[in-house]
C-alpha cells in the first residue's frame, strides 16, 4: 500500500524525524508528527491517516495507549505501538486496544517496514470486509426488524420466531464486524 | 343486543363515522342489519360494501323486521358492492380508496338523501404496512366528513393488530365494542393524520431519480464500491449521493434507511 498516510505520534523530535525519513524512503506519506493528544486527534480527524505509529510514553505523562484507544474508537484508524518500554503491565494494557503491531525501540528500517506493511494489509482487509458487507448486512437486519415490527398483524408466530433467529444471527455478525 | 345500542343506531347523523369491532359473525350481522333497518326506515339510501355478497343471515334479519328488501333494491335505496372480482385491482391502499370513492359518488349521484354505508373488513389490508393502513382509514374518514353519509366499518377483533387498533380509534369518532357505542377518546381529524403521513412519502419525492436508483442498490445489499462499478461513477460520488439521500430523508443510519425503503416498497 504505497502512498498510504501514516501519522507519527512521538515526542522525541530526532526519533520522529528519523522515522519519517524511513517511511518516506519506503514510499509512504507522513502528514504530520505530533506529540499531544489534542493534535493527534485533530490530525486523525482531518487527514484521516491509514495508520498511526504511536509512542506509548509521551511527554508530561501523556499515555499513548489512551490516545490509541480514542483514535481507534472514533476514527477506526489502526495503530502500531512504538516503544522502548515493554514491561508486562504495559503490554497487557496495549493488547486490550487491539494494536496492529508493537515495535520495540531501537529498531531497523526493515523491522519498521515489515510491521507497517503487515498492519496496513491487515487493516485494509478488515476495512474491505466492513465496507463491502455494510449495506448487505443492513438489508438483513433492517428487513428482519421490519417483519418483527409488523408482528402478528401480518405474520404467524412460526415465521416470526424464525425471523427472530435470523435477526439475532445477523446482529452477531454485525458485532464481529464492528469490532474489526 | 341491548336496547340502547339499537336506539343509538337509529339516531345517527350524517358524517358520523363508526367502527364496529365484532367477536363473531352473528354479532357482525346483527349490528350491520340493524344499521340498515334504521336507515331504510328513515328513508336513507343504503350501500353495503364487502368482499362477499350480502350474507343470508343479514337478509333474514332485515326482512324479518318487515322491510321489503327487493323493493328497496328496485328503488335503488339499497345497493351492494361486492369487491370479489375487483380485489386484484385494488391491492394497494390508494387504488382501494379511489375505488371506494368512485363507488360512493356513483351511489350518491344527485340524491339529496343521507346515505348509510357499511363496509365490512375482508382483510384486503393485510399486506399493507401501518402507515398505509393509517392512510387508508384516515382517507375514508375524510370521505365521510365531506359527503352526506353515515359510514360504518366492521372489523373482526381477532384480525386487528395493536397498531391497527390505534388507527381505528384515531379515525372513527364512534366505536361499537361489545354492544356498547361510545365516542372514541383518541379521535384525530383526518387532515391531521394525512398531513403527518404525507411527510414520509413527500420526503421520498424529493429524491432525484439517480438517488432513487442508488437507494434501490443499497437495499439490494450492494456496497458503495459495487454500486460505483454498476453505475460507472466513482465511489466518492456514490458516498456523496448516500449522504444526501439520508439527509433528505432525515435518516441517520443504514438500517433505518433500508427499513424506510422497504416500507415504501423501493426495492
Q: How would you characterize the overall build of this protein?
A:
The complex is a heterodimer of chains A (180) and B (267). Chain A has helices at 13-25, 37-47, 64-75, 88-95, 109-150, 157-179; strands spanning 6-9, 33-34, 51-55, 79-83, 101-104. Chain A has 180 residues and is an alpha/beta fold. Chain A folds into two domains: 6-124, Response regulator (Rossmann fold), CATH 3.40.50; 127-179. Chain A has a five-stranded parallel sheet with strand order 2-1-3-4-5, sandwiched between helices. In chain A, α2 runs parallel beside α3 and α5 (109-150) packs antiparallel against α6. The model of chain A has no long low-confidence stretch (mean pLDDT 90). Chain B is 54% helix and 15% strand. The longest helix of chain B is centred in the N-terminal third of the chain and has 17 residues, at 25-41. Chain B is elongated, with a radius of gyration of 23 Å. The relative contact order of chain B is 0.13.
Rough outline of chain B:
elongated
Stretches with pLDDT under 50, minimum 5 residues of chain A: none
**Sheet/helix structural class of chain A:** alpha/beta
Taking all Cα atoms into account, the compactness measure Rg of chain B is: 23 Å
Instruction: Provide the CATH topology of the largest domain in chain B.
Output: Rossmann fold
Indicate the percent of residues in helices of chain B.
Answer: 40-55%
In short:
The complex is a heterodimer of chains A (180) and B (267). Chain A has six helices and five strands.
